[in-house]
Automatic annotation (TrEMBL):
Pfam families: HpcH_HpaI (PF03328)
InterPro entries: Aldolase/citrate-lyase_domain, Citrate_lyase_beta/mcl1/mcl2, Pyrv/PenolPyrv_kinase-like_dom, Pyrv_kinase-like_dom_sf
Segments forming domain HpcH/HpaI aldolase/citrate lyase: 35-199
Cofactor(s) annotated in UniProt: Mg(2+)
A GO MF term: lyase activity
Gene3D superfamilies (alphabetical): Phosphoenolpyruvate-binding domains (3.20.20.60)
Protein name: CoA ester lyase
Organism encoding this protein: Nocardioides marinquilinus
Length: 365
């Protein structure tokens, strides 16, 4: 069969190189609550990776920012070594390659697909600007997969970290059947947009709304200190756009990094906002953040119990019922099914969570 360029809808699912694996028609949901970053050129960190198998859903060998320029080759070779020598079991192996305008990315992709392509689940591509970036990676991966004789396609995850990338978010998500998901890149995105925050993710105390002034008849009128302020989320708009674009294309949105490693409380809040809005996971940069991500991106046992009660009460799934004083109907049933299905998918790979869900009514398995 001759490979053809994807010029029409029916060509979208054709392999982009002769002998490349057939693209997937749907991106399967695989739990990825914590995408744990490590620098494969850092011997101490790399040595911890085999011991982290099973404790995080994704182990990601980072080759891009946070790896010194002098260590780029060592990081690439370190990842090849870890990939070859580690049994990842249920844990996925991802990599973040260098940016497409860097001198390293071609060797990153060529070497990794050739050496450990059978172990790599997802390639994360930074600073994606538009569909053209995904098309480039898509074709190159097909060529490399064919050369390596791989029998399943490696998926692609884009980091949304430029203003142009945000403007093009829908076309990025739909650019290839390989597209697995998107992560927020709050540091590069803030810089590109010329936002005035120096934080890596999270809120900012200056981004707030203030309570109205007291009435002129109030004795405290004019005392601004009495007017409560409410900090807002700098990233709400971008996350919401990501969630919609991903849902529209059947792929998965993630919060990115939270740079204040010491502040696990604020990290948890930021991750939870993302979870509530529809994200399926977040990055963990330090072992301290792993429990936070696992906890936040797993529905609570109480929420799952409630969702199960609604499903049971709704019978054939149509009509309206009252439960605990609240109306439930076809639509709220769908909301509850989102929760129940996620609980079942997570319970299937997380015995601790399964025990919690079983204790309050059991998972369907
Ligand atoms: C904006 C972006 O692009 S974000 C993505 C890029 N950034 C990253 O990937 C950063 C990854 N994380 C790191 O580099 C490090 O965690 C740092 C630099 C933030 C902090 O590192 P340290 O100062 O060594 O942290 P700390 O001293 O608390 O580490 C405690 C232990 O955890 C280990 N550790 C730290 N981070 C990790 C990690 N990501 N994975 C595995 N082990 C880790 C350390 O090696 C150390 O081990 P030890 O107890 O045997 O000595
Ligand atoms: C995540 C990332 O790469 C950034 O915030 O720039
Ligand atoms: Mg970045």
């Amino acid at each position: 069969m001759a490979a053809q360029s994807a010029t029409s809808a029916k060509d979208f699912f054709r392999p982009l190189a002769v002998g490349a694996p057939q693209p997937l028609r749907e991106i399967p949901f695989r739990p990825s609550r914590a995408i744990h970053f490590f620098d494969p050129s850092n011997a101490k960190m790399a040595a911890k990776v085999p011991g982290m198998v099973g404790t995080v859903d994704v182990l990601l060998g980072n080759l891009e920012d946070a790896v010194k320029a002098d260590n780029k080759e060592a990081a690439r070779e370190g990842l090849v070594e870890i990939g070859r020598s580690t049994d990842f079991g249920p844990t996925q192996l991802w990599t973040r390659v260098n940016a497409l305008d860097s001198p390293w990315v071609l060797d990153d992709l060529t070497r990794l697909v050739g050496e450990i392509g059978d172990k790599l689940d997802v390639v994360m591509v930074p600073k994606v600007q538009g569909a053209e970036d995904i098309h480039y990676v898509d074709r190159l991966l097909a060529q490399l997969e064919a050369k390596a004789g791989l029998d399943r396609p490696i998926l692609v995850h884009a980091i949304l970290e430029t203003a142009r990338g945000v403007a093009n978010v829908e076309e990025i998500c739909g650019a290839s059947p390989r597209m697995q998901g998107l992560s927020l890149g709050p540091a590069d995105l803030a810089a590109d947009r010329r936002m005035k925050t120096t934080r890596v993710g999270g809120g900012h105390p200056g981004y707030l709304v203030r309570e109205d002034p007291p009435s002129p008849t109030d004795p405290a009128a004019g005392v601004d200190a009495r007017r409560a302020t409410y900090q807002q989320d700098l990233w709400h708009y971008t996350i919401a756009r990501m969630v919609d674009a991903c849902a529209m294309h059947g792929i998965y949105p993630y919060y990115g990094p939270f740079g204040d490693i010491a502040d696990v409380t604020a990290c948890e809040d930021q991750f939870r906002n993302a979870f509530l809005l529809g994200c399926v996971g977040a990055w963990t940069l330090h072992p301290k953040q792993v429990d936070v991500a696992r906890r936040v991106f797993s529905p609570s046992a109480d929420d799952v119990a409630h969702a199960r009660r609604v499903v049971a009460a709704m019978g054939d799934g149509t009509g309206a019922v009252m439960l605990d004083g609240k109306m439930e109907d076809d639509a709220s049933l769908k909301q509850c099914l989102v929760m129940v299905e996620l609980a079942e998918q997570l319970a299937a790979i997380d015995p601790e969570l399964k025990a919690q869900y079983d204790a309050i009514g059991g998972t369907d398995d």
